[in-house]
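Sample 3 of the quickstart, ligand iron/sulfur cluster:
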Amino acid sequence: MQAASTSPPAFRWDDWYQSVGGRTIKIAEVDEILNQIKTFQYPNFHGETNPQQTVFESIAEASADIKQKAFALGADEVGIAEIEPGDIYQGREVNEKFAIVVGQKMLWRSFQEVPSHESAIECLRIYFSLGEVVINLASYIRSLGYDCTVEHPIGDSDVLHVPLALKAGFGELGRHGSIIHPKMGPLFRLGSVITSMPLQIDHPIDAGIAAFCDNCKACRIYCPAKAIPDERSVEAGKDHLGNYRYKVDTGKCFPYFAKHNYCSACLPVCVYNHKEWAKDFEGHQTKLFPAVALKEPPPTTDPDIPKHWYPKFKR
Ligand code: SF4
Ligand code: SF4
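Result:
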């Protein structure tokens, strides 16, 4: 399947970094995790498919089996969506029919101060950890006799994880542009395994989150770069529930993100973080609200390159 003519190009990280004077964030632990992903995970994206195919009684049974396995491997949420041309990045081709979208939550205690080295390291830790989940899930699917492809959370994937996760019932888009899950909140990351194994799809949910966002502006107030909008944008198109999307200004966000430990301040300040996380379930006493370093934002940068953009839903 080809990407739709309206599909976005993949985010051009190098061009954006060049526009702000290069990569200046230096955190040894982040570099080490990146190195581990390249060294130990990239070579495991592919594997042999068992010629003896397991036949399930129904697509419901097959889906339940896959989800159970994903949870056993460490996923905090799993959903299944059918891939449409608009879910594929420009210039990429996908032969698989379904995406098994997997989410893993980040630790609240690592976001006590944002932006910080600790929050940056936690983002990378989850990329590695979630990478293990999708690689092992792909391996399991191949052992059942079905081909599949790993779409790693760290990037350079063929498909857009966010719209697929919305279709798979993960939650709703928040004002800050990230998905808010009714139980996990917004502090989580996504990866996918794509396959043509016959599966039962999930559906988008309406948990009242978008309506809540229209009255809450916490992320907008605490965004150090003032990149989060006041109003929904007609130009940005509609989300899966038919609401016009909030359009985060990447030209303001990215320079701050690139110079201040990958920022992420909009996620822990979001009121949809469930405060029972304040213990992180491991006896760690943590704060109920992070300290946000509101340093002066760098100048806006908006390089003249094709923009990463989520597909607009024609509803
Ligand atoms: S990552 Fe930081 S700069 Fe970007 S939108 Fe969120 S709070 Fe604002
Ligand atoms: S902080 Fe408030 S407005 Fe922003 S995404 Fe969360 S709920 Fe929505």
